[in-house]
Specification:
6 strands; two-stranded antiparallel ribbon; about 60% helix; globular; two-stranded antiparallel sheet
C-alpha cells in the first residue's frame, strides 16, 4: 500500500519517475521493446576507434567523433574531413572510445520527460503567456504515466515471475483517483486518436483542452525521438543481430532511409494532434511547429537534410529543447527548491546523457529516476525538490563530459542554468580525477563535529562566488550530498543484483565486485554511514541535542534512520550475491554455499574459525583452477582471494575478502545499536537474500552453468 504521509505533487512526480524506470526503460524508439541481448551490447565499455563501423563516420555524429580524436589539437570543421585520406585502421587501434559516445536508439522514457516539460511550459506560460493553471500537476504526471498501463513493473520484485502489472488499481493505490482517472482517459483517447489517423479518419474532439494539449505533447515528444534516430542514422551501422530484431519489428533495415516510415507516421500524428481543438498555441504549438515540424518536413522532402535533425545543434533536438518555454523563461536559480526545477533538471539530464548506458540494464535516465523513487520511499516527509534535482543532475557533469558521452557538460553550465548553490552541490557529487579525493572527503565528513547543511557550506545568496570544483576533498559532504551518495550506492547495488549477467568482463567475477564494494565505494560510503550513526545516537542519548545550533530535526532524523537501514540492507544483498559468485567460482554445492554464507554473516564465528572453516576447508584453490580451465572465470586474478595481477604461482591475498566480512559484521552491530534487528526486519532481509540467490541460480541455469554475460564484442 501507499505510504501514510501526504500525497503531494512532488511525491506523485517522483513515484512516476520510479514507474517509468521500471516499465519502459527497455523500450526504444522505432524498435519498441528490445532484447537483453541488444542491451548487453549497449552496456558501457571501451572499443578501439578502428573497430567502429565505417557507416558511422559518414554521419554527423561520426565525423564529430573523428574531429575530436584525430584532430584534437586543431579547431577543425568536421564537415571538411576527407575520410579517404584518414588511416583509421592504423591510428584507431590505440584510440579507445567509450561506447556512451556512440549514437543509439533513444529509450522511450525520454518521451515522458519531454512531454512533462512541454506541459509544464503550458502550465506556466500558456494561454498567451498568462499561464494555464488547469493544466494541473496531476495531468502532467498522468501524461507521463499513460504509456505504462499494462506493463510489468520490474522493481516490484527481484524475479520477473513476481512483477506487478501497472493497471488502474495500481495507479489508484499509489497516485490517487485524480491521476488514475486522467491516465485512463488519456490512454483511451490516444488509442482512438491513433486508430483514426491510421485509418485516414478525423479523430473525435478530445474531452477537454487539457487532454488535447496533453495528446499534442505526447505525439510531439515521440516525433522528437524518431527525428533524432533519423538524424543519427543509427540503423545504418547496427550489427546483424540488432538489425534482425528491427526486421521483426517491421523495419526495412536495407532501405536508404529506414527511419522514414516512422518519421512520416509520427509527423502526421503530431500535425493532426496540433490541430485538435483546445491545444495551447503560445507555449506548445508555436515553438514546436517552428522547430521540430519544419525540420522534419524538410527531411521528409529531402533525405539529405536529415542530418540537420540531430547533433549538438540539431534542429530537432537542440532547438526543440532550448525553445521549450520552461527552458527559455523559467529561472531555476531563483527557485532551486521547486518542483519546476525538478522538471527542468530531468530535461537537462535527458538531453546530456541520452546516449549513456550503465554497466547494467539501466539507462542513465532510469538510474536517476530510480534514485528519486527510493528517496521518496526512504525519506518520506523529509523529501524535498532539491534532493530530487540533485538525483537528476548528480551524473550529468561526470558522465556528460567529452570523454564519456561527448556532450561536453561542465559545472559552469550547471551554474548558469541552475545557480551557484545547486552547481556546488552537484560538484561535491562529481568524481574528481583523483581516486582519493572522495575518500578524503568522506573521512573529513566523519570527523566533522556536526552534519553540514547545504546552506551552511554554500553561499545561497551568491550566483558567482560559489566554489566549483569536483568533489572538493577539503570540505565535508553536506547532508544532501550524503543522502544522494548513499542512494546512488543503493541503486548501483540493486542494478548488479537484478542483472548480474550484464556485468561484462572482470565485473562478472568476485574480485572486481568485492574490491569495488569494499575499497572503492565502501571507502566513501562507510564513513558517511558512520557519520549518520553518530548523529542518530547523539539525538538519542543527549537530552539537550535539539538545543545544539547544528541539530537535525525529528523528521530528518527518522529519514536518516530509514536511509541507513535501506543502505545496509542492499549492501547485505550484494554481499549475498557476491558470495554466490564466490561459491560458483569454487564449485561449491548448494549445502556448501549455504555454509559459506552463514559463516560469513555469523558474528559468533571468530577470525580463526572463519580462516579454518571457510578460507581453508571450503575455498579450495584446486577447484578455482579447475573453474578457470572451464571458463567460469577468465583467470585466477579475477577471484577475490587473489590480487588483480596474480598468476597461478602467486600467493593468495585474502585481505579484501576478510575486510568485506568485517564490514558486514559491523552492519550487524549497527542494527543492534539502533534496534533495527527486529524479528520482522530480519525475516524480511532473509527472504530478500533467498530471492537474490534464486535470481542468481536462474541466471546460471539459463547460461548452462557458465556465469558470463551474453555479450558480443561489438562496436554498437
Amino acid at each position: 500500500m501507499a505510504r501514510a504521509y501526504q500525497l503531494t505533487d512532488l511525491v506523485k512526480l517522483v513515484r512516476a519517475y520510479g514507474v517509468l524506470a521500471g516499465t519502459v526503460d527497455m523500450d526504444r524508439v522505432i524498435a519498441g521493446q528490445i532484447s537483453r541481448r541488444w542491451i548487453s551490447k549497449e552496456v558501457e565499455h571501451l572499443v578501439p576507434l578502428s573497430s567502429l563501423p565505417t557507416e558511422l563516420f559518414h554521419t554527423q555524429r561520426g565525423r564529430d567523433l573523428l574531429a575530436a580524436e584525430m584532430f584534437a589539437d586543431q579547431d577543425i570543421d568536421p564537415e571538411t574531413i576527407d575520410l579517404s585520406s584518414l588511416d583509421i585502421a592504423t591510428y584507431g587501434k590505440e584510440c579507445l572510445i567509450n561506447t556512451n559516445r556512440l549514437p543509439k536508439l533513444e529509450p522511450t522514457i525520454h518521451a515522458a520527460v519531454l512531454s512533462a516539460n512541454m506541459l509544464l511550459g503550458v502550465r506556466l506560460y500558456g494561454n498567451h503567456g498568462q499561464g494555464m493553471p488547469s493544466m494541473s500537476h496531476d495531468m502532467i504526471v498522468a501524461t507521463m504515466l499513460q504509456d505504462t498501463l499494462g506493463k510489468p513493473f520490474r522493481y516490484s520484485a527481484i524475479t520477473s515471475a513476481d512483477h506487478e502489472i501497472i493497471d488502474d488499481s495500481y495507479l489508484f493505490s499509489w497516485f490517487g483517483a485524480e491521476i488514475a482517472t486522467h491516465v485512463r482517459e488519456l490512454n483511451d483517447y490516444l488509442r482512438h486518436f491513433e486508430a483514426a489517423v491510421e485509418n485516414s479518419q478525423t479523430p473525435d474532439e478530445p474531452p477537454s483542452a487539457e487532454i488535447a494539449t496533453a495528446v499534442a505533447a505526447i505525439e510531439a515528444s515521440r516525433l522528437r525521438l524518431t527525428a533524432r534516430a533519423a538524424g543519427d542514422q543509427v540503423i545504418s551501422f547496427l550489427d546483424a543481430d540488432s538489425r534482425a530484431e528491427l526486421v521483426q519489428a517491421g523495419v526495412d533495415v536495407d532501405s536508404d532511409f529506414p527511419e522514414r516510415p516512422f518519421l512520416e507516421q509520427d509527423y502526421t500524428r503530431t500535425r493532426i494532434a496540433f490541430g485538435l481543438t483546445g491545444v495551447d498555441h503560445y507555449a506548445l504549438r508555436e515553438p514546436l511547429r517552428n522547430t521540430l515540424l519544419m525540420a522534419v518536413r524538410d527531411a521528409l522532402e529531402d533525405a539529405q537534410k536529415r542530418e540537420r535533425l540531430s547533433g549538438r545543434r540539431g534542429k530537432a533536438v537542440h532547438e526543440v529543447h532550448m525553445n521549450l518555454p520552461v527552458m527559455e523563461y523559467f529561472v531555476a536559480a531563483d527557485n532551486p527548491n521547486s518542483i519546476e526545477t525538478v522538471h527542468l533538471a530531468s530535461l537537462e539530464m535527458m538531453r546530456s546523457l541520452e546516449k549513456g548506458r550503465r554497466k547494467s540494464l539501466s539507462t542513465m535516465s532510469a538510474h536517476a529516476f530510480r534514485i528519486s523513487a527510493i528517496a521518496e520511499r526512504v525519506l518520506g516527509r523529509a523529501l524535498q525538490p532539491l534532493i530530487v534535482t540533485l538525483a537528476m543532475l548528480h551524473d550529468v557533469v561526470e558522465d556528460g563530459s567529452l570523454r564519456v558521452t561527448g556532450y561536453g557538460h561542465s559545472l559552469r553550465k550547471i551554474q548558469f542554468r541552475f545557480g551557484g548553490p545547486v552547481a556546488a552541490m552537484v560538484s561535491e557529487l562529481t568524481d574528481s580525477n583523483l581516486h582519493t579525493d572522495g575518500i578524503n572527503k568522506a573521512a573529513i565528513t566523519l570527523s566533522h563535529p556536526h552534519l553540514m547543511q547545504p546552506q551552511e557550506q554554500y553561499d545561497f545568496s551568491s550566483f558567482t562566488r560559489t566554489k566549483l570544483k569536483p568533489t572538493e576533498a577539503n570540505l565535508p559532504y553536506t547532508l544532501s550530498g550524503i543522502v544522494i551518495k548513499l542512494l546512488d550506492t543503493v541503486v548501483s547495488l540493486e542494478e548488479g543484483i537484478r542483472d548480474p549477467e550484464l556485468m561484462t568482463g572482470h565485473w562478472r567475477n568476485s574480485g572486481a565486485r568485492i574490491y569495488w564494494a569494499e575499497r572503492v565505494r565502501g571507502a566513501i560510503v562507510y564513513p558517511l554511514m558512520e557519520r549518520l550513526l553518530l548523529e542518530l545516537k547523539a539525538s538519542q542519548i543527549d537530552p539537550k541535542y535539539y538545543r545544539r545550533p547544528h541539530s537535525v530535526n525529528n523528521v530528518r532524523l527518522r529519514a536518516g534512520m530509514a536511509l541507513l537501514d535501506t543502505t545496509m540492507m542492499y549492501l547485505d544483498l550484494y554481499v549475498t550475491q557476491n558470495l554466490a559468485i564466490v561459491a560458483h567460482e569454487y564449485a561449491l554445492d548448494s549445502v556448501q554455499r549455504d555454509t559459506l554464507i552463514s559463516l560469513f554473516f555469523d558474528p559468533n564465528v571468530n577470525e580463526e574459525q572463519f580462516q579454518s572453516r571457510v578460507l581453508v576447508d571450503l575455498l579450495n584453490d584446486e577447484n578455482l583452477v579447475d573453474s578457470v580451465d572451464k571458463g567460469v572465470l577468465e583467470c585466477i586474478a579475477h577471484s577475490t582471494l587473489y590480487g588483480k595481477d596474480a598468476t597461478s604461482d602467486s600467493p593468495r591475498d585474502e585481505s579484501n575478502f576478510v575486510a568485506y566480512r568485517a564490514s558486514a559484521l559491523r552492519r550487524h552491530a549497527v542494527r543492534q545499536e539502533l534496534q533495527l534487528d527486529t524479528t520482522d526486519k530480519l525475516s524480511a532481509l532473509a527472504l530478500r537474500k533467498e530471492q537474490v540467490l534464486r535470481r542468481f541460480d536462474q541466471t546460471i541455469e539459463a547460461q548452462n552453468g557458465v556465469f558470463k554475460p551474453n555479450f558480443i564484442a561489438s562496436a554498437v
